[in-house]
Amino acid sequence: MSQRDRDRERLELALDAAGLDLWENNLVTGEVIQHAARTFRELGYPDEEVPQLVANSLDLVHEDDRDRLGTALGELLAGSTADYRCEFRLRARTGDWVWYANHGRVMEGEGGRPGERFVGVTFNIDERKRRETELADIYRQLEEQNQQLHRLIASLELLAATDALTGLANRRTLMESSARECKRAERYGHALAMLLVDIDRFKDINDRWGHLVGDHVICAAAELCRQGIRQGVDIAARLGGEEFVLLLPETDGRGAMALADKLRLAMAGHCVADGDGQPVPFTVSIGVASFEPGLSHMQLLHHADKALYRAKHQGRNRVHRFEDVAAG
């Protein structure tokens, strides 16, 4: 045995111990100098079938991996890359698909002839790929659960911030928002107004038509409040019972009065249906207050409440502003 044969034998032993399957092709003649015998044995093919399989080796490659394999070989032979590396699936004799990887390089042939030998190794990466797939599934499930958690948190935050019956902001959200807007108006000298809206004779509605119709009236009034504000700027909230508050940043007293009267007319022109489909009309009274330097959000609400009381006292279905109440 020559030294070269002994070196090759040692190399093959080391490769076999490492799970690497040596192969070699002659790029000039197309001859398969050494095929990946270990790989074919792992796939369950008997020795007598191997020559035919080597001649048609691409048929063993999963169709989804063939383009990737061809691209990697093409880049190597075109000189775009010095190394050939590719991962792909091979069909076992049982029909199962098993993941393998190839690493190879073009080397000199006998006498130093360049570009003659294509030498590389094939090795089984199926377990690693399966772990990667399992991890990918775990990450996907975690991401789905994370998204569900975010949706749940968003739903909980929405529930905590909105009134269950009307969907408007609730009292807590109103207090937080009005405190923030009052500080902002104080700091920058911007206009800020508040409307306190109360459904007239709401107890009579409940007594005559029942609480279900009363809830319909509350929801109808809430929807008209929502439609009357600037989305993303103003805030419509249910203060409690049949009372609503509209918080209007960047709105002066004149603009607030105009909106209040428009809203009053919309309420007066709206009806809900009772259980027999008969119309149930309702009206509202509205108190208007404008922010002044030094006012807290609770004081602003108190001013709007005083204006509302005057509107109620003077016959309901009216709009009054605090400045007129304070002056007279």
Question: What layout of secondary structure does this protein have?
Answer:
Blueprint: H1 3-17, E1 21-26, E2 32-34, H2 37-42, H3 50-55, H4 66-77, E3 84-91, E4 97-107, E5 117-124, H5 126-161, H6 171-188, E6 192-199, H7 202-209, H8 211-228, E7 235-240, E8 243-249, H9 253-268, E9 271-273, E10 279-281, E11 284-290, H10 297-313, E12 319-321, H11 322-327
Parallel strand pairs: 11-12
Antiparallel strand pairs: 1-2, 1-5, 3-4, 4-5, 6-8, 6-11, 7-8, 9-10
Helix pairs in contact: 7-8, 8-9
GO biological process, one term: cell adhesion involved in single-species biofilm formation
Coiled coil: 125-162
Catalytic activity: 2 GTP = 3',3'-c-di-GMP + 2 diphosphate
| Structural class by helix and strand composition | alpha+beta
Using the CA coordinates, give the radius of gyration.
Answer: 40 Å
Proportion of β residues? 15-25%
**CATH architecture label of the largest domain:** 2-Layer Sandwich
The neighbouring-strand order within the major sheet is 2-1-5-4-3
Task: List the defining traits of the structure above.
five-stranded antiparallel sheet, alpha+beta, 2 domains, Alpha-Beta Plaits, 328 residues, PAS-assoc_C, 11 helices, rod-shaped, diguanylate cyclase activity, Beta-Lactamase, single chain
What this model shows, in words?
One of its GO terms (cellular component) is plasma membrane. It catalyses: 2 GTP = 3',3'-c-di-GMP + 2 diphosphate. It holds the Pfam family PAS_3. Residues 125-162 form a coiled coil. It comes from Xylophilus rhododendri. The chain has 328 residues and is an alpha+beta fold. The protein has 2 domains: 3-124, PAS domain (Beta-Lactamase, 2-Layer Sandwich), CATH 3.30.450; 165-327, Alpha-Beta Plaits (2-Layer Sandwich). 48% of the residues lie in helices and 22% in strands. It contains 11 helices and 12 strands. It has helices at residues 3-17, 37-42, 50-55, 66-77, 126-161, 171-188, 202-209, 211-228, 253-268, 297-313, 322-327; strands at residues 21-26, 32-34, 84-91, 97-107, 117-124, 192-199, 235-240, 243-249, 271-273, 279-281, 284-290, 319-321. It has a 5-stranded antiparallel beta sheet with strand order 2-1-5-4-3. β11 (284-290), α10 (297-313) and β12 (319-321) form a beta-alpha-beta unit. α7 (202-209) crosses α8 (211-228) and α8 (211-228) packs antiparallel against α9. It is rod-shaped, with a radius of gyration of 40 Å. The model has no long low-confidence stretch (mean pLDDT 91).
